[in-house]
Amino acid sequence: MAQDGAATGAGTVEQPEGEDPSDLPAPPEGIRDPVVIAAEGDLPPVVPEYNEAGERQISFAADVLSYDSDADVTTAEGNVILQSGDRSLRADSVSWSQRTGVILASGNVRFVDENGNQLYTEQVELTDEFEAGAMEDLLLALRAGGRLAANKGVRESDGTILLEEAAYSACAVTTPDGCDKDPSWRITADRVTYDPFEAKVKFKGAYLELFGARLIPMPGLSVRTDDGGVSGFLVPDIRISESNGVEVSGSYYLRMADNKDLTLSAYLFSKTTPMVSAQWRQLTDKGAYQITGYATHSRRISDFTGLTNATEADPRGYVFANGRFQFDPNWSLTGSVRLASDKTFLRRYDISRDDRLRSTINLERIDADSYFSLAGWATQTLRLNQEQERVPIALPVLDYRKRLTDPLAGGQLELQLNSLAIIRKLGQETERAFAKAEWSKKRITGMGQVFTLTGLVRGDVYHSDGNLLNPTPSYRGNEGWETRGVALGAVDVEWPFVGELFGGEQVFTPRVQFVVTPEIKNLAIPNEDARAIDLEDSNLFALNRFPGYDRIEDGARVTYGFDWKLRRPGLELFTTLGQSYRLDSDRDILPDGTGLSEKVSDFVGRTEVRYRDFVKLAHRYRLDKDNLAIRRNEFDATIGTSRTYAEVGYLRLNRNIDTVEDLQDREELRAAVRVAFANYWSVFGSGVFNLTDREEDPTLSSDGFQPIRTRLGVAYQDDCLELGATWRRDYVSAGDARRGDTFQLYFSLKNLGFR
C-alpha cells in the first residue's frame, strides 16, 4: 500500500499509520542498514553528516512525500532538496529504495559534491552513501572554473567520475546579455576521468579546438580543480627578432608538491646558440621564495662598437631570486638578488630592459611605536658607458626609530639612529652615523587653523677616503673624519576654507611655513644620497628639500602657497601652487637651475583633473621666477575606458645645469593607444621618443627627435582566451642587442595555465 502526505516534522521516515515495522520484510543480505532521513519545513536542516551509530544522515525538503510499503520505496516530489554534510542535491523527484539503498533523482538534477563542484543532469542514481552513479547528458561545473559536458558518465564508489565523449572549456556559454554563444576554445576527448581526491581531471584522446576548429593534439593533458597546477608541457612561444632570428621556446611545469614547483624552459634560435632556464618556487611555513636562472654560451660584441668581427663566445646568463620570511608578527626578512653575466644579456634575449640590477637584503622589526632595519644594497650597472668599479655597495645600512607619544607639552617625539657604509672598488668610500631627535605637535584652533610646530637636533660623524676620485667636486667633502651638528625649528600653518561652488564643494587652503636652521658645514661632508636636488611640488614644504641625509638646507626661509580642491558629482579638480623666500644669502650647495639657488625660488605647482573614470589629467610644472619660463613641464593624461583609451606622458627639464651629472636636462615623450572593436578584438600601439637636442645635452648628436622603441599589435581577449600578435621596433643598438624589428605570437587559455 502507499500513502501521500506533506513533508513535515523531523526524524526518521515514518511508516504509514497502522503498520507494524516488525511486519516489514528485512533488507536482503549484504544490504546496508536503512539510511536515516530527516525532514523539516521548506529547507533541509543542518545536521551532522553521520549520527552516533555511524550512519550517514540525509536531510531533505520537498513539497510532497509518499511511501510505497509494497515496494519499500520512499518518494519525494516537487523541488526536492537533499543535504548531507557538504554534499547537496536538488531535483524534481527523488525516490529511495530501502531494500537496495539506491536513491534515484530525476528532473533538473543538480548535485554538489564536498569540493564545491556541481553536476547537472536529467537523472542520476545515488547510493545510500549519497554517491552519484550512472548518468547521461551531463554537465560538470568545476569550482575552480571550467565545465565538462559528456554524453555518458558514471560515478564510481570511490567518487571518481568517468566521462565518455566529453568536452571541457573554461569559457562562458552565454554573453553578459544572456544570449547563447559558442566557447572560444574547448578540449574534446574520448574519455575523461575526474578524481575528486586528487582534485584532478585527466583527458585521453584530447584535442584543442579554437573557434570550432580542431588544431592541436594534447596527449597526457590534465587539469586541477582546486586552482593548483598540474605537471606538463606549456604551449610554446614564437618570436622573431633582429638579434636572435626565429625563436621558439617551450616549458615543462613540474608540480613537486602543493607548496613548491619547478618550471624548466628551453629556447631555440636561428641566429645563435640555444638557451635554457629554470624557475623554482616554494612556500614555507615562514614565507616564500623563488629562484630563476638563464644560461647559454653565445657570442657577444666585446667592445660595443657594433662590428660583427669583434665578437667572442662566452658563458652567459642571469640569476634572479627573491623572497620574504615573516618570523613572527614583528620580525621579517626580505631579500632579492639580480645578477647578469654582462651588460647586454637581458636586453638581447628580451628578458628585461632595466639599466641597473639591484640586490638587497633587509632584516626588519616593526611594532606600533618602533622600527628597526639592518640592510645591505648592491647594484650592477648595465649602462655601457659606466664602470662597475665605480658603482657603490651600501653595507651595512642600519636604521632604528622610536616614537614617544606625549613626552613633552603634548607633542610627539621620534628618536632615530642611522649608519651607512659606502664601498667602491674604484672611487670614494664613505662611512656615516648620526643620531636624531625630532619633536612635533599639531594643534587646531577654534577658527580652524592647523598649527604644526617642529624641533629637530642631529649629530653626524663621517669618515671618507679617496675623495679626489669623485668626479664632482661638490660631492667630495673633506677626506678623513668630519663631524656635524644640525638644529632646526619650523612653524607650519594651514587654514582650510570650505564652501559651495558650481554645484559642488570647494576647499581652499592657504599655507605658510617658516623654517630656520643655523649654518651647516655641508661642503665638508661627502654627498652620497642627496644629489638629485630639484624644487618640486612634492618637496616644497619639506623640512629638508634634499632627498637624503648628507645635505641639509640651512639658513632661514619662508614658504607660502595654497591648495584648492573642487568636488562635484563625477568631477574632481585639484591644484597647488607655491614659492619660497630665503632670508639670508645664497647657498653654494644648491646649483643654479634647481629653482632654489637664489633668495626667491621659482614657482612650482601641480594640477590634477579627474572626470568620472573617463578622463585623468596631471600636470606638474616649475616656472622661472624672473620671466616665468617653464623649467619643468611634466604632463600625464589618460582618456577613455578600460577597453578603448589613449595615454600620453611628456617630460621636459629645462634647468641649464651642465656642471652636475645628476641634474642633466632632458625631454621625452611616451604615448600609448588601444582601440577595441567587435566585442573582443583590439588594436594597440605605443612609443617612447627622446626629444632631447644638442642644446639641452651637448653630448648628444640627436636633432631633437629620436625614437627609442615603438610597438604595434592586435589582440583578442574574452573571458577565457587571450591571443595576439605584436610588432616592436628598437631604434638603438646596445652591443649585441641590435636595433631592429621583433615579432611575437602568443595565446593564453584560462584555467590551463598556457601562455
Automatic annotation (TrEMBL):
Residues 316-681 form the LptD C-terminal domain. Pfam families: LptD, LptD_N. Keywords: Cell outer membrane, Membrane, Signal. Residues 62-129 form the Organic solvent tolerance-like N-terminal domain. Its main location: membrane. It is found in: Cell outer membrane. Residues 1-31 are annotated as: Disordered. InterPro entries: LipoPS_assembly_LptD, LptD, LptD_C, OstA-like_N. It comes from the Bacteria. Involved in the assembly of lipopolysaccharide (LPS) at the surface of the outer membrane. HAMAP family: LPS_assembly_LptD. Component of the lipopolysaccharide transport and assembly complex. PANTHER family: LPS-ASSEMBLY PROTEIN, LPS-ASSEMBLY PROTEIN LPTD. Belongs to the LptD family. This is LPS-assembly protein LptD.
